[in-house]
Every structure is written in structure tokens, then in C-alpha cells.
Amino acid sequence: MISSVQLVAYSVFKDAAGVAGNIFAFGLFVSPVPTFRRIIRNGSTEEFSGLPYIYTLLNCLICAWYGSPFVSIDNTLIVTVNSIGAIFQLVYISLFIANAERMRKMKMLGLLAAVFVTFAFLVIVSLRVFDFASRQIFVGFLSCASLISMFASPLFIIRLVIRTKSVEYMPFYLSLASFLMSMSFFAYGMLNWDAFIYVPNGIGVLLGITQLGLYSYYSKRPSEAHAPLIVSYS
User: Fold this and answer.
1) Could you give the angle at the alpha carbon of 226 between the alpha carbons of 168 and 205, nearest 5°?
2) Contact 39/24 with Cβ under 8 angstroms?
3) 93 close to 232: Cβ distance less than 8 angstroms
4) According to DSSP H, which parts of the chain are helical?
5) What is the pTM of this model?
6) Pairwise CA distance, residues 82 & 85, whole Å
7) CB-based burial, 23-61: b 16+ in 10 Å, e otherwise
8) What is the DSSP annotation of 89-114?
9) 142, 115, 139: which is closest to 126 by C-alpha?
């Protein structure tokens, strides 16, 4: 039989993992700051894409909704990290729109409206169509799919590193923060018995280990010449 002391310790470890995940996620959220300093300084979005911020905003909204008490139990730290992430993305999108040329500005405004309409539709459907248990499964699968699809960016970076034999476009601290965040939320999900949290973050842990391993290997090797490439945050 589990004692009250063990239950408290269990809760403390779970919350500690969630808080650590929030802290490491903050490092990822501020990573586009240098890009937007350049955009503001030049008064132009140049060749940067605003799509990663649109997609990350939708992902944060879906995951925040999953963590809410309307959908799942005891996932407050999922709400906090994704709410903070959504705020950061809104700031980045606003700055992008303010500095974009007219056609790109209109496109971004349309995509932003589409994100809010999609999220509102998701909230209404999940509340009116599903009961609590089926709602958690429905929104959980959506949040899980959204998180897993976001791993396309690390996979692209991994392929780029192998092809160019250079870690120039895979910053070490960004890869480390991504790995630590995934590891923290993997532990949080396991301690909360929530597969919709630990499965996608478990995949993130494996990708993080792969990135750090590639960094360790290729940072010691001379890189091959290759054309400059701009990689946007996602």
C-alpha cells in the first residue's frame, strides 16, 4: 500500500519534471529573438518564413487545450508552458506582419485568422460532441499528432548535418534545450500516466540524443563547403 509520504514524493517529482520542462521550453521560445532583431533593424522580413510561428502557435493552442481541466486531469504545467509559448508566437507573428511587405502581410493575417478559427472549432466540437473521457482521447490524439509532426524540423536538420558534414545549422545549446525539455516532459508524462504526453516527448528525446550525437561527431570533423542556408525556428 502506498503511504501518504510516497504520494507526496511522487507528486513533487512529477511537478519538478514539469517545472523543468517549462524552464527548458523558455530557452526554445526565445531562440528566434536574434532573427527578429535583424528583421526590426532592417525593417524587412527578407527571406525568412512566418509559417513556423503560425504552426507553432496552433500547436501550443491545441496542447494548452489538452492540458486544461476541461480535457485532462492535473496537467496545469502543460497549460502554462503552452500558454507562454502561444504568447511568444503571437509576438513574433505580430512583428513579422508589421515588417512584411503587403502580400506577405495579408497572407500571414489570413493564416493567423485560420489558426483561431480552427482552434475555436476544436474547442466547440470537443465540448459539445464528446463526454470527458472521449474528449481527452480526441484532443489527446490531436495534440500528440501535432507534436509529432513538429519533429519534421529536427529531422530536416539531422539530414542537413549528415549531408553537409557540418553542425553550423544545428546550434548546440538549442539542441540541448530541446533534448532537456523533451526529457522533462517525458518524465512528467510517465509520472502522470499520460501517454499523450510521454509518447511524443519520448520521440523528442530520441531525436535529441541523435542531434547531440551528431554534434559530438561532426564538430570534430572539418566541414565540407556548402551554400549558405537560412533555417527558421519551428
Assistant:
1) 35
2) no
3) no
4) 4-29, 33-42, 51-67, 76-99, 102-129, 132-149, 152-164, 172-191, 195-218
5) 0.86
6) 5
7) ebbbebbebbeebbeebeeeeebeebebebbbbbbbbbb
8) HHHHHHHHHHHS-HHHHHHHHHHHHH
9) 139
Let me know the angle formed at the C-alpha of 34 by 166 and 164, rounded to the nearest 5 degrees. 10
Give yes or no for a contact between 66 and 139, defined as CB atoms under 8 angstroms apart. Answer: yes
67, 84 contact by CB (below 8 A): no
Nearest in space to 47 (alpha carbons), one of 118, 104, 106: 104
Instruction: Return the C-alpha cell found at 206.
Output: 530520441
> Do 154 and 178 touch, CB atoms closer than 8 A?
yes
Tell me the three cell numbers of residue 122.
476544436
Instruction: Write the CB contacts of 187 (distance below 8 Å, at least 6 apart in sequence).
Output: 13, 17
Question: In residues, how long is the chain?
Answer: 234
DSSP state of 18: H
Between CA 21 and CA 37 the distance in angstroms is 26
Give the pLDDT band (50/70/90) at residue 188: very high
Q: State the chain's mean pLDDT as an integer.
A: 88
pLDDT category of residue 174 using cuts at 50, 70 and 90 = confident
Distance CA 102, CA 100 (A): 6
Contacts of 144 (CB under 8 A, 6+ apart): 196, 199, 200
Amino acid letter, residue 9: A
Pair 24, 177: CB distance under 8 Å:
yes
